[in-house]
Design goal:
Length: 374
């Protein structure tokens, strides 16, 4: 193949790939549709910049092509030695920077307005959600209500086509309300990123970053962690369910009722059987602990200890309760005291003491946790 034929072939295949790409409606060429005023503004800014850049590109490539053909050496063209003395030659050096500056200021003008709004926290928020990133899940705390959502990625079998994009418990938010997000992390850097509804700031352990939005349209909006945070970085997707304020209130009432019932159940004096605790503990273990200790309890050698036959998980019950309740400083083992209630903690510990051949036969009761907390 000659050189020019080869170049043609490459260009043709590139064109074909681009055309084939546009055939998938969901994977359109542009960004997903923004559904909040501020994200709309950012989207428009992106479109403006892209249009300007495209026009400049066409003009510059046009001039270069024109010059290459028109003034080529093979035609015997000789460079004009006095071009810089002509009026156009003199002024072009001044005009081009002026035009560039004008374009820059056009973009900067809209960008400044968007940035000012990003940092505008003068309005009171209707809903405030603390968003906590951790390896590898998101936790949402509604600051004005006693609601806490732990959001884990759905496994492949349950997520289907939305694998890596679906979670068990989405964040539920009302439309048409000013929503304030407080971003932080419990271990390493993460970033909560849902481009359709809100811009992004880092989640930093020990710091709070603030963003806000006002969602205009009901729907399901997906995002992901946008700050590399370890081997599970790809496995902490985000799903936001935006619903009308009426539906949001109904959801909230239901959520509070369930939480109240769970709290009442957890603080009752009932003595639970081992099987009841084990059954509850299995689900809790798989959502909260298996990310590190693995579903089969074997852990990851050298990083996360296995619990199968572990000294703590099969030995002294108080030591087991202690490490789960208080964590271990300086390691990835977090304190679960504030995250799970007594019944949940009793269940997960009972599960660990009886699963995977850890047949201790122990049934740890909520009352044991209650006294250990003191
Ligand atoms: C982010 C990772 C991570 C998660 C999630 C996690 N652990 Fe751990 N866990 C660790 C690490 C690391 C250690 C080892 C700490 C040390 O160095 O002693 C540990 C130690 C333990 C031990 C002591 C094991 C032994 O033999 O030393 C128990 C018991 C335990 N975890 C229970 C749990 C329970 C119950 C949960 C869920 C509620 C949980 N862990 C969630 C990381 C994790
Ligand atoms: Cu992350």
């Amino acid at each position: 193949m000659s050189k020019s034929k080869m170049i043609l072939a490459v260009l043709a295949s590139l064109l074909l790939t681009t055309l084939a790409g546009t055939a998938y409606a969901d994977y359109a060429l542009n960004f997903p549709e923004p559904v909040a005023p501020l994200t709309q503004q950012m989207y428009d800014l992106h479109m403006l910049t892209t249009k300007i850049a495209t026009i400049i590109m066409v003009i510059v490539i046009g001039i270069v092509a024109f010059v290459l053909i028109k003034f080529r050496k093979s035609k015997g063209y000789e460079a004009d030695q006095n071009f810089h003395k002509s009026t156009f030659g003199t002024w072009s050096w001044t005009l081009v920077p002026i035009i560039v500056l004008g374009i820059d200021l056009t973009i900067a003008g809209s960008a400044t307005d968007a940035l000012q709004q990003v940092e505008d926290y003068s309005q009171k928020a209707d809903v405030t959600v603390k968003v906590i990133g951790s390896q590898w899940k998101w936790t949402y705390e509604y600051m004005d209500d006693d609601i806490r959502i732990v959001s884990n990625m759905l496994p492949k079998e349950e997520a289907g086509d939305n694998y890596l994009r679906a979670v068990d418990n989405p964040l539920v938010l009302p439309t048409g309300k000013r929503i304030r997000f407080l971003h932080t992390a419990s271990d390493v850097l993460h970033a909560w990123w849902v481009p359709q509804i809100v811009y992004k700031k880092d989640s930093i352990p020990g710091y709070i970053n603030e963003t806000w939005t006002n969602i205009q349209k009901e729907g399901t909006y997906r995002g992901q962690c946008a700050e590399i945070c370890g081997t599970g970085h790809a496995f902490m997707p985000i799903v936001v369910e935006a619903v009308s304020p009426e539906k949001y209130e109904a959801w909230k009432a239901e959520k509070l009722m369930v939480a109240e019932a769970a709290a009442a159940e957890a603080s009752s004096d009932k003595t639970w059987t081992k099987d009841e605790l084990y059954a509850r503990g299995e689900g809790l273990y798989n959502t909260n602990c298996s990310g590190c200790h693995q579903v089969n309890g074997t852990g990851m050698p050298g990083v996360f200890p296995g619990l199968v036959g572990s000294k703590i998980a099969t030995g002294d019950i108080d030591a087991h309760i202690n490490i789960v309740l208080n964590g271990k400083a300086g390691t990835a083992m977090a304190a679960w005291a504030a995250q799970l209630n007594d019944l949940e903690l009793a269940a997960v510990i009972t599960y660990e003491r009886n699963a995977w051949g850890n047949n201790t036969g122990d049934a740890v009761q909520p009352a044991d946790l209650k006294s250990a907390r003191k």
